[in-house]
């Protein structure tokens, strides 16, 4: 249930983000989810590619600094309080959250989350029968 | 361990005997410049001295200094001491800041050059069994040909590939089995990265020795290159005004560079007062070339800052040793009144595991205040997903630099391989203040 996410170091230069997606597109690698964090000096692009090892290789060959981290993804009803319920599970288990990103296209909300202990977070969510999304599910979307 | 010395007679000569040799040769060179170079005659007459006042080494300080500007003022051949019919070679500096400086060699000067380079290579353990790949530029720059003559003199198989064309460098290094690489340290570092990224496996290469010089580099950079290339790296020092490479060289103990002082007499002076300094004191290095015929040069101010040590080296050589140059009296940056040598920044970065030696210093003046910005590459192996950790890295570098140089600096993290790699001399500083 743990998903490999790539994060790419980017300087604040126009066109740089476009280059990453152009490289991945040409290599026929799909991106299922992404988020961009920025500071005044640099940015970090986080993305979940259909082929994490291949994406990493090709980005490194194009001289990007790339790091792999473990994230989890889950679905929750698109209704008030649903995310709060999910987060409480982690809080009660004393699992920290580095960051999360997500959106709600219809009945459901989809969240990608980086806990400080991914394995433990998966176990807690399974215990509480949360709807976890596996890497293979994610690539199908 | 057997220590190879090319010219045991001169390289291990007792100090008193060396002084006698130097005194004799100094008398000769002063006569030659006095009678053959109008510029020197006029300058000596101005100071009320003639050849008769220079009897021994102790009289050296009576002589006037020569600077790069003097060479430019006498462009192109004004300081030559031989008629052009006796000059068989001309080299010139790049001359980025004005006229190039031109140097001329007689047939005997080329022989002396080969001799001092043979000493240099022998001290690095190079012999007729070696293949030496010379990736210094051939041409007006003295690097390529200087190494070339030394390589031939010791009988090595010389590969005169010259600088650049990295793909070809790697191919020949692999196919010819080069055992010695001669180039600038920044290009060596660049080649190490290129080997990593190529299909060539390090264990298939026969490389064991590096002969690096022509730009300042630190001991830490040496360790870094030795680790990356799995070789022993030797420092060489030289400047075209004196002869080119071969002025001084590392022995296997790497405890300072031995100066070929039977040809080039060194002094250390205070760059402000021009007074001579004692052994072990930091100051500007000055050379008098006592055997040169084409362009003998008296008390040439190198602008390089170093110290001299006269005790006999563990290798048995008595030749005086100079420390690695810590900077240049004219490359020194003055930031908000504080003296700064780019090599200081480099040392700090190399001491931190998280950064590469690739950096760029950008100096600017904003609202009448000097600003210092340091660009450092974020290498893949220490890149982190967390913003806080990257910011901590930036802060750590900033803190280390500030506590070392005593100046505030803005650290900018940049993507790997975005700072220009040079195939010649590294450009480490952009001083925008001078462009205004």
From TrEMBL, chain A:
Pfam families in UniProt: ACT_8
Domain ACT: 71-141
Domain of life of the organism encoding this protein: Bacteria
Protein name: ACT domain-containing protein
Organism per entry: Marinilabilia salmonicolor
Classification of source organism: Bacteria, Pseudomonadati, Bacteroidota, Bacteroidia, Marinilabiliales
């Amino acid at each position: 249930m743990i998903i490999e996410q790539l994060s790419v170091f980017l300087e604040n230069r126009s066109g740089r983000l476009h280059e990453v997606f152009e490289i991945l597109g040409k290599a026929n690698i799909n991106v299922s989810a992404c988020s961009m964090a920025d500071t005044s000096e640099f940015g970090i692009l986080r993305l979940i590619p259909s082929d994490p090892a291949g994406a990493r290789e090709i980005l490194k060959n194009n001289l990007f600094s790339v790091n792999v981290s473990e994230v989890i993804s889950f679905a929750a009803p698109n209704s008030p309080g649903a995310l709060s319920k999910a987060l409480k599970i982690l809080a009660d288990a004393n699992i920290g959250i580095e960051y999360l990103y997500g959106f709600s296209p219809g009945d459901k909300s989809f969240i990608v989350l980086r806990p400080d202990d991914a394995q433990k977070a998966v176990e807690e969510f399974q215990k509480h029968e949360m709807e976890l999304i596996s890497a293979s599910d994610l690539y199908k979307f | 361990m057997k220590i190879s010395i090319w010219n045991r007679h001169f390289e291990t000569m007792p100090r008193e005997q060396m002084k006698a040799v130097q005194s004799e040769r100094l008398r000769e060179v002063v006569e030659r410049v006095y009678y053959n170079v109008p510029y020197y005659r006029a300058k000596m007459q101005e100071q009320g001295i003639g050849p008769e006042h220079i009897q021994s080494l102790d009289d050296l300080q009576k002589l006037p200094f020569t600077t790069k500007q003097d060479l430019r003022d006498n462009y192109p051949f004004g300081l030559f001491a031989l008629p052009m019919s006796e000059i068989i070679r001309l080299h010139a500096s790049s001359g980025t800041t004005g006229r190039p400086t031109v140097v001329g060699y007689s047939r005997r000067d080329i022989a002396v050059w080969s001799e001092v380079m043979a000493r240099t290579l022998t001290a690095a353990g190079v012999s007729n069994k070696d293949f030496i790949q010379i990736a210094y530029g051939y041409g007006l720059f003295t690097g390529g040909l200087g190494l070339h003559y030394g390589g031939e003199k010791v009988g090595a198989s010389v590969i005169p590939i010259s600088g650049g064309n990295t793909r070809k460098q790697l191919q020949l290094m692999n196919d010819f089995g080069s055992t010695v690489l001669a180039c600038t340290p920044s290009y060596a570092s660049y080649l190490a990265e290129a080997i990593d990224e190529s299909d060539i496996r390090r264990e298939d290469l026969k490389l064991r020795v590096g002969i690096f010089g022509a730009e300042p580099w630190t001991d830490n950079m040496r360790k870094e290159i030795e680790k990356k290339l799995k070789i022993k790296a030797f420092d060489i020092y030289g400047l075209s005004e004196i002869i080119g490479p071969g002025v001084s060289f590392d022995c296997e103990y790497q405890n300072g560079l031995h100066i070929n002082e039977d040809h080039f007499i060194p002094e250390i002076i205070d760059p402000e007062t021009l007074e001579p300094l004692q052994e072990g004191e930091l100051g500007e290095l000055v050379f008098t070339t006592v055997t040169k015929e084409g362009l003998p040069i008296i008390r040439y101010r190198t602008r390089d800052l170093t110290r001299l040590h006269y005790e006999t080296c563990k290798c048995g050589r008595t030749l005086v040793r100079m420390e690695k140059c810590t900077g240049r009296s004219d490359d020194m940056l003055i930031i908000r009144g504080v003296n700064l040598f780019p090599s200081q920044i480099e040392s700090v970065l190399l001491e931190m595991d998280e950064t590469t030696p690739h950096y760029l210093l950008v100096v600017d003046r904003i609202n009448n205040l000097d600003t210092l910005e340091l660009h450092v590459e974020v290498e893949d192996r220490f890149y982190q997903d967390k913003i806080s950790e990257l910011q901590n890295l930036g802060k750590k570098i900033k803190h280390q630099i500030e506590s070392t140089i005593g100046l505030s600096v803005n650290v900018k993290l940049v993507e790997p391989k975005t700072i220009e790699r040079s195939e010649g001399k590294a450009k480490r500083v952009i001083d925008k203040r001078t462009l205004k």
